[in-house]
Design a protein that fits this description.
By secondary structure, this protein is mainly beta. 12% of the residues lie in helices and 55% in strands. The chain has one domain: Outer membrane protein transport protein (OMPP1/FadL/TodX) (Porin, Beta Barrel). It has 7 helices and 21 strands.
């Protein structure tokens, strides 16, 4: 039988400690700091180069000054579809998983107010700012002398070590006078490793916006956003002795006869977020002449409150159908705050006859993001040091065009989006690139339908544990389709 005192100690630690190896880190900060890219159909069709070209409700999220260009009251709604496809290389084996979501993207109204001169427009509505759609799958034999089991056993976190102990994958070592030293394991890699990750959710905003023409051809606007959303990540991971490296003659725990003939180990973790926050952005737009617009927009730093639920259970299988389970499972809740970096965007658009071309540059210093609260002082400083050490400033690019066919109500659009990786020294293949296309049709003087398609591609990698020991190399393809309807009255 297992040492009773250590079992009691393990249970108490699991119940009170939440700082397991999957604790909050820079990836959580980036998840909320990265700009979303799917808003309006006209905007996406033009590569989101909308800072100086926006003239519909969706401009409240790009540059609220553009609201002042709206001449008639507008009711706007849009629907989004996203497909995320991940082709993963893992120890010379490839696997592919995809996940799709559909959701209401935007709904709002823009209302021009009566003025003696110039324009004054109010906007109210809802926007899906970003989605958290993603997936990953892998399955291959790792011939190295490493495993997730070993990573748990030799983790600096007691809660991790106790997972392995309670599943009969490790055993304690004591000094000659009976003092506990540490845990160890007889597992030494050479296991088949399999895993699946599925994540979903979205960040949404309820917005109120206003824009005014302060002087002839000079416009300013502001938007207040109240954010809410959710994020869910489900991960299933297992290791299996497919080559009988650990036979019936080997006890993984010398004091536990049932730990002979190791078969497999599995761990299942679930992370759920409830997100809330607020933000403010201000923009300006100037008509240099009838052809040229220049514009700027500032999205100020935002603070999000995350209410997190983290759940972990696991099991191990041995010969004679023996099974150990993690009992009780880890079920912890925590609240913390994340502060995201400000974004500074500059744009221009030029109209020549029926052709409009536009471009944006956006500067973001991801190293200024941080955890604001929710941890003790030392943990908070360490987490924020990691962010500053790993993140950098980037300049994102957007470019696009719109061509309206003469004597018709048909417009075609195209664009390009470059979203630089926030990680220092990442090569360009880790930057997110999108090609976009779109079409718009004015059905009547009041009704316009727009559609847009975006195809994105980039590379990524992830470690199941350690660094480079069990790494997935990911080739990601992302497709977005937006359909929007605009009614002027």
């Amino acid at each position: 039988m297992k040492n009773l005192s250590k079992i009691i100690f393990a249970i108490s630690i699991v119940l009170i400690i939440s700082n397991v190896s999957l604790a909050q880190n820079y990836n959580d900060v980036f998840r909320l700091s990265e700009s979303g890219m799917v808003l309006g159909a006209r905007a996406l069709g033009m590569g989101n180069a909308y800072t100086a070209a926006g003239n519909d409700f969706s401009t409240i999220m790009f540059n609220p000054a553009g609201l002042a260009l709206i001449k008639k009251a507008e009711l706007y709604t849009g629907f989004n579809y996203n497909n995320y496809d991940n082709n993963v290389g893992f120890f010379n084996r490839n696997s592919s998983l995809s996940n799709s979501i559909s959701k209401l993207g935007q709904f709002g109204v823009a209302l021009p107010m009566p003025t003696f001169q110039g324009s004054f427009v109010l906007g109210f509505g809802y926007s899906q700012v970003k989605d958290f759609n993603g997936t990953l799958g892998f399955n291959a034999f790792n011939s190295g002398s490493n495993s997730y089991i070993q990573d748990l056993v030799y983790s600096p976190y007691m809660a991790d070590r106790d997972i392995a102990f309670k599943l009969a994958l490790s055993y304690p070592l004591y000094s000659s006078n009976g003092v506990y030293l540490n845990d160890t394991t007889r597992i030494n890699g050479r296991l088949n490793q399999r895993g699946n990750i599925l994540q979903d959710g979205s960040l949404n905003a309820w917005s109120i916006s206003a824009a005014i023409e302060v002087e002839k051809d000079i416009f300013i606007g502001a938007t207040i956003n109240l954010y809410s959303g959710n994020f869910n990540k489900n991960k299933d991971y297992s290791e299996e002795d497919v080559n009988n490296i650990y036979p019936s003659s080997l006890l993984l725990d010398p004091s536990e006869p049932a730990s002979a003939d190791f078969k497999s180990f599995a761990i299942h973790d679930r992370i759920s977020w409830d997100i809330s926050g607020s933000g403010f952005n201000i923009g300006g737009l100037m008509k240099i002449n009838k052809n040229l617009n220049i514009a700027a927009n500032i999205k100020f730093s935002k603070t999000f409150t995350v209410k997190e639920t983290y759940y972990v259970n696991g099991e191990s299988h041995f010969g004679l159908d023996t099974r150990f389970v993690l009992d009780p499972a880890i079920d912890s809740k925590s609240d913390y705050e994340i502060t995201t970096p400000a974004e500074f965007t500059f744009g221009a658009s030029y109209i020549l006859n029926n052709l409009t071309v536009s471009a944006n540059t956006t500067m973001i210093d991801y190293s200024s993001a941080k955890f604001k609260s929710g941890f003790d002082m030392i943990a908070l400083e360490n987490k924020n040091f990691d962010i500053k050490d790993m993140f950098r400033s980037v300049v994102n690019l957007n470019a696009g065009f719109e061509y309206v066919f003469p004597s018709t109500n048909l417009a075609i659009r195209g664009g390009f989006i470059l979203m630089r990786s926030p990680f220092r020294d990442d090569p360009t293949e880790y930057d997110k690139k999108f090609l976009t296309a779109g079409v718009g049709v004015r059905l009547t003087n009041s009704i316009t339908i727009d559609g847009a398609y975006a195809y994105g591609w980039w590379k990524d990698y992830g470690d199941n544990y350690g660094s480079g020991l069990s790494r997935t190399y990911q080739d990601i393809k992302n497709q977005n389709i937006i359909t929007s309807f605009k009614y002027n009255f």
